[in-house]
UniProtKB/TrEMBL annotation:
Domain EAL as annotated: residue spans: 24-276
Protein name from the UniProt record: Diguanylate cyclase/phosphodiesterase
Source taxonomy: Bacteria, Pseudomonadati, Pseudomonadota, Gammaproteobacteria, Pseudomonadales
Top-rank taxon, per record: Bacteria
Species: Marinobacter antarcticus
Amino acid sequence: GSDRAQERGIAYYKLSRDSFSAGRLTMASELQKALANNELKLYLQPKLNLATGQIAGLEALIRWPERNPSVGADEIIMLAEQTGLIKPLTRWALEQSLQLRNCLLENGQRFKLSVNISPNNLREPDFPLFVKRLMSAHPQHGGAIIFEITETSMMQDPVNALKALNSLTNAGIPVSIDDFGSGYSSLSYIKQLPASEIKIDRSLITDLATREEDRVIVQTTIDMCHSLGYLVVAEGVEDEATANLLKGMGCDMIQGYLLSRPLPLEKMLTWLTDRHEAASMQRAPG
Ligand code: C2E
Ligand code: MG
Ligand code: MG
Ligand code: MG
């Protein structure tokens, strides 16, 4: 009776007060429309292998071009997570990534492609099955779509996150731990992760050239990750000095504005071709 109604009333009140203010509701419904009308895009940012000087792969990052830069990726994802849109959004991003990689292959670019996944996705009971079906329908991308998941997000529910990650890796999906060093996960947890790659958070990289403490932390992280069998990527590398330091520290890969900002597919294809041509000019005699 009225108690029930009151409970519902309270529930509504809480919803509208906490995360569903009028402005947010409008934004959420606009985001839903943008997703349905294919107005969201994935931009691509390269990763460089420091030992070989070759491009090691690309990361897909979401953009809402009509709202860029006022609504950034972090905000899109936060809004999607709060409204349940993250489930269709991630499925769209995965399908879109496969299409992008088809275009890359057609242009002779056989790079691995990293896609960011939300911890909410790991809590969807049918997520591993969705992924398995999608990947077996596109065998040309087998092992070439890497799932990135942030270290901090897994700590909300470490046991289930680990289970979900294990079922993904059992399905042949390589997993990368994003934003490593920005949270407080224990070493015993990290060593259980079925990941192949660790990405050191930009906050530890930004002042590497000037802060001795950051160099100690990053060197220790690289060595520890190597001992545990992970490849190491440094995020947010913006200058040569930092890249050279990381190379000397044995870091495997770098990503950041030094190489390129995230670009739409067409521009990334041009960037990759230009870079390739510049490299072969350097190799050519005379
Ligand atoms: P992330 O996965 O850690 O991605 C790296 C972020 O750093 C990106 O921000 C990238 O544009 C930015 N970045 C790269 N190099 C540099 C640099 O040298 N300097 C600086 N200052 N920044 C650099 P972006 O694109 O705004 O994405 C923010 C976060 O949003 C991502 O962090 C990721 O956690 C999330 N995200 C982005 N796209 C998606 C998506 O499709 N799905 C999900 N679930 N999350 C996504
Ligand atoms: Mg990432
Ligand atoms: Mg990151
Ligand atoms: Mg991040």
